[in-house]
What does this fold into?
Amino acid sequence: METYGLEKLGIINPTAVYRNLSPAVLTEHAVIKGEGQLSDTGALVVKTGKYTGRSAKDKFIVDEGDAHNNVAWGDVNFPITREKFEAIKAKVIAYLQNRDIYIFDGLAGADPKYTKKFRIVNELASQNLFIRDLLIRPTEDQLADYGEPFFTIIAAPGFKCIPEIDGTRSEAAILLDYETKIAVICGSQYSGEIKKTVFSTMNYYLPFEGVLPMHSSSNMDPETKETAVFFGLSGTGKTTLSADPNRLLIGDDEHGWSDDGVFNIEGGCYAKCINLSPEGEPEIYNAIKFGSLVENVVIDPDTRTPDYDDGTLAENTRVGYPIEYIPNAAIPSVGGVPTVIIFLTADSFGVLPPISQLSKEAAMYQFVTGFTSKVAGTEIGITEPTPTFSTLFGEPFMPLPAQKYAEMLGEKIEKYNTKVYLVNTGWTGGPYGTGSRMKLKFTRAMVTAALNNAFEKNNVEFKHDDRFNLEIPQVIPESDVPAEILNPRDTWADKAAYDAQANKLAKMFQDNFAKKYPDMDKAIVEAGPKAD
It folds into this structure.
């Protein structure tokens, strides 16, 4: 029996080893083993149990070798000793003995200059289907000549840690070792942990090759090839807004920006399903078919029809699918140098404008600050929108110091004269609980105007917001977006209440920046919000 290097990991007696199986076979294995069931569209639907989102506090990095000096240790990147890592890994390896093992040898990075080989070792056929969907699938020739992987990830959700013995925070653990290039994921069946482990690994190595890794989606004009990048945390609209029928989708979540342009790190998409409809998000809705993996969506036991409005199992319902399932996907997933950058934020205070243009300094301020609201379900314990500052719009996945990534972005914005916009997909007319969420069709129209350079072409007037240091367009040309929603203060019935709420948020910006970045360049500090 071919073991594809499992013996090097210590898995010496698996009952069977399956490598790079087809979606049909993986789906069949998962159904037979009771891991999930088929929906009426043919997609595999699974329940992930206790963990329906990322468990950010359960991720650790081995504090050894180059990582000791490279990693930004603190409230996000938690260290673990070599001894504890090896002890947990040994237990997971022992757990996997005498079990079926599923291997997917895939690729990360669509630009061949920066492609890296990842070997994913799975306990579950369903998770192997997921990572097959999400990574770049090698051709037959690439697989035959695959050789040794650059990095190996072992995912065994059935193994539960014992915190008192293993030194973990809970039964789940996501452990990354950049020295031996091995990661171990156990205790959680939420497949997003695997994908984000790949991303975190690429984010560690790519900057040393001159590539800026970005927690972003990206698309481009099919004719001009002009490329746009969308930054934002989960739930702010990266996937939804980049799935534009009029543009080619490069990717929905993870990219690298080299001197040659943008490339997708992944080969698939991982979209939220809650309240999904064919009218609102047709590209995503139609991608849920045979070969896709759906997490925690309730389906009718008789008709097997999914109910995307039912959040009983989780608000963070998800679907993973190959990028080819999007009809207008760019294959290969590479684009040009970005002409437009969109920072997406979901402001639960309801005080930021729905769209505003940023100077270079303001762009750097917003990028480093990464303000948004974590939305229900994306992380354990988040049940309603929670204001947060996530550096680089992806702090949990960025192991190096923020300054490293920020300086790279600033250099690229200046070098390529890239336009930058801040887009609020959050609340208007009042805060969460009082106001309403910004309509998706309005946000799409604003983003389209930015991508098409419509503001400049139509000589649109911009109004400066003194408190937040933003330039607000007074009309969205060639659209039905009401002008009265563009200036957020005008949407509040109680203007004094708006002023108080806006000042509160501006003060939060200032306090966060002063605490996290006391040595930042003065021009960048001055480009941020000003509380009264």
